[in-house]
Amino acid sequence: MTSKTLQDQSVVVLGGTAGIGQAVARAAVAEGARVTVLGRSAQAADGAHGIAVDANDTASLASALAQAAQLSPSGKIDHLVITIGSRTSPPPFAALQRADLEQAFGTKFFAALMAVQAALPHLAERASITLTSGLLSRKATATGLLRGSINAAVEAAGKNLAKELAPRRVNVISPGVVDTEVWGAPADRQAMLARIGSGLPVGRVGTPEDLAQGYLLAMTNGFMTGAIIDIEGGGLL
């Protein structure tokens, strides 16, 4: 049975050096987990171990995940969380190039799948895997084709992997607008995010800590798999 607590569980967060991933790492440390953060640098939240990785390089992913497993007393990873994504703004559809598609899908979708595959030899029998999509998967906008397509692909992958990798559990967190560095420096983004938040039912945009609660749920609820967990302040309404 999956533990309902993260105490002494091995948690690996790919993309955990900033934003949502960093908040997940901190929350897991606070719950007593042994946390390893994989990112562009070996930077890690207090209480976590950091390993530098190139998420677009399969060999680098395999090496980093093997190292992460070795840090666990059991030699296994109990929970794999993937929060990586592209920070570049997509061009309008009329100007979209194949290279734009390959870069964006490579960073968020292909890298996530390769990370899960590389982790398989190191995952505990009933490990959890939590992927990250976004509300544009199901909210059409005039400029959302590329991001919406990637997020929809992540959600479809999550459901299929939940079947194929059982009894390991696979879930997807779908964030709305969250106050992170993706939106620019704090001085530049606050007015814009306040405007966006005023149009949401909850009256504000999300924080990384709001999202971290959802990842903790996905890790600790042993009866949840194949789920898309929307944490978006009512943005899909």
Automatic annotation (TrEMBL):
It is an enzyme of class 1 (oxidoreductase). The keyword Transferase does not apply. GO terms for molecular function: oxidoreductase activity. The keyword Oxidoreductase applies. Its EC number is 1.-.-.-. SUPFAM superfamilies: NAD(P)-binding Rossmann-fold domains. This is Oxidoreductase YghA.
